[in-house]
From TrEMBL:
Keywords carried by this UniProt record: Membrane, Transmembrane, Transmembrane helix
Transmembrane segments: 12-27, 33-53, 60-81, 96-113, 134-150, 233-253, 386-405, 417-439, 445-469
Protein name: Uncharacterized protein
Entry annotated with the keyword Chaperone: no
Taxonomy, superkingdom: Bacteria
The keyword Transmembrane helix belongs to this UniProt entry's keyword annotation: yes
């Protein structure tokens, strides 16, 4: 079996899925309009995905992860559990309408972008001609040693640019899979980079750090066409489910020990007692929910990581608050633009955690908590700022900006390997980055991609050459 990125969903497939969702949801007691809107969301998502060109393009990746992690995955699980889609929501009909309207604007943006984007991407000429082992070693050196030698005044800027340890996974895995027609992916350098990122994430209790290495491997391997047997695929799926069910509670509980003198000892203890850690996590979650005025959950019973892999119930709360007169202004979007300006040029730019502000509005945080930032989706963010006017008059142009810039810079994975960077980035930010992803992704992160591409192709090979052995020269037999 060869795993690869889908580039198009057949209309018959989309209609069948939409029909199954509608009938199943209605049969389980969902309001008929909500069930119908759930089906139309599937169709609109598929049309937008096809128009973007599939998962091989950054724009297609944004649409894919937004549709799946915004609503699709949670909706499928609700149906499989026999729960109505409108249970535990504040205003299911309105939220489904907002999601459908949002995906419609994305479809329009993808349609225009398909005509405007560059046929030959800007980074098409930034080719990797050196040995991949040298490039990977150079990326590891820059990613690990760089923060230690960069002046403190430039440390914040370098942290934004420093994705080189991830590059040491993405590029070698992609190259190795291409060379072997998907039969092999890892080499010792990419495996070492994966180990470093994962261990560092474990020691710092960073959920993103724990999983980003594995996600980077999966993205690169599938983009290149990974060949895997059914048994191995089943084992990988089981490992992923078990790891997420253990490591997600670990990261949440472990954050309480950040800054403690015995941080490493606490990390080891939590890892050695996974069931105890998970039970403590469930207990703390239930206790925290009982103290809140209105705990937000979609499923009748906690589903662990799945509760965090769907944005719809949180977005529903914000949409409901908006319809009850608590809306914002375009100043929210203005701060997104201001925060995209480098700190060196705008040192006094506003630093507002809008996720924190919105969470207070929906009753998710205690009044004194002004540091915790909660994630929301782009549709609820746009609706909260200006309701339907912003949804239909401003949001489409913001999506178009993101799609045009990202697709024009890297093109598809068939054109440049640099598109992998956007795909990995959108796997996290598309469903939960609010509308700020359209600004940050088309400006600051694009600078990160361009800077990374030139550094990887020009500087990393020179550094890698210092510590790698030359390939043996084959001698001709006489």
């Amino acid at each position: 079996m060869k795993l690869s990125f889908p580039t198009r969903f057949p209309p018959a497939y989309m209609l069948t899925c939409a029909g199954i969702i509608f009938v199943a949801a209605w049969a389980e007691g969902t309001d008929i309009l909500v069930a119908l809107l759930a089906g139309t969301f599937v169709i609109l998502s598929g049309l937008a995905f096809n128009m973007a060109g599939g998962l091989v393009y950054p724009s297609g990746a944004y649409i894919f992860f937004l549709a799946i992690l915004g609503l699709g995955l949670g909706m499928a699980v609700k149906i499989l559990l026999g729960e109505s889609l409108d249970s535990n929501l504040r205003d299911a009909q309105q939220s489904m309408l907002v999601y459908n309207a949002g995906m419609l604007t994305i479809y329009a943006a993808a349609t225009v972008n398909r005509r405007l984007r560059r046929r030959r991407p800007l980074l098409a000429n930034v080719l990797i001609k050196e040995r991949m082992d040298r490039i990977a070693v150079g990326c590891v050196l820059i990613g690990i040693v760089g923060p230690l030698v960069v002046p403190e005044s430039a440390a914040a800027t370098f942290r934004q640019l420093n994705n080189f340890a991830v590059f040491a996974i993405l590029l070698p895995v992609y190259s190795r899979a291409k060379e072997t027609d998907g039969a092999s992916t890892f080499n010792w350098i990419s495996f070492a980079a994966w180990g470093y990122i994962t261990v560092f994430g474990l020691l710092t209790f960073s959920k993103q750090g724990i999983f980003v290495g594995s996600i980077a491997w999966a993205v690169a391997a599938c983009a290149a066409g990974y060949r895997v047997g059914k048994l191995r695929l089943f084992v990988l799926a089981i490992v992923a489910v078990v790891a997420s069910s253990i490591l997600t509670p670990y990261s949440q509980i472990g954050r309480q020990f950040r800054g403690a003198a015995d941080l490493n000892e606490q990390a080891i203890y939590l890892l050695e007692h996974p069931l105890e850690t998970r039970n403590l996590y469930v207990l703390q979650t239930e206790l925290a929910d009982s103290k809140k005025k209105s705990a937000i959950h979609w499923f009748e019973h906690s589903q662990g990581l799945l509760d965090r892999l769907t944005m719809f119930p949180i977005d529903d709360a914000l949409i409901s608050v908006t319809d009850h007169g608590h809306s914002r202004t375009l100043y929210v979007f203005a701060t997104y633009v201001m925060n995209a300006v480098p700190h060196i040029f705008y040192p006094d730019k506003p630093n507002i955690l809008w996720g924190n502000e919105f969470a207070h509005e929906v009753g998710m945080l205690s009044p004194g908590d002004h540091t915790t930032s909660i994630s929301f989706g782009p549709f609820s963010d746009a609706y909260h700022v200006g309701q339907w006017k912003v949804m239909f008059l401003i949001a489409p142009f913001m999506f178009l900006l993101l799609f045009f810039v990202t697709d024009s810079v890297t093109g598809s994975t068939d054109q440049t390997a640099w598109a992998l960077l956007y795909i990995l980035y959108f796997s996290h930010t598309a469903p939960e980055g609010m509308m700020s992803t359209t600004i940050y992704g088309s400006s600051t992160y694009t600078i990160v991609v361009i800077f990374g591409a030139f550094t990887v192709s020009r500087i990393a090979p020179l550094l890698g050459q210092l510590v790698t052995l030359p390939k043996p020269v084959a001698t001709a037999r006489s």
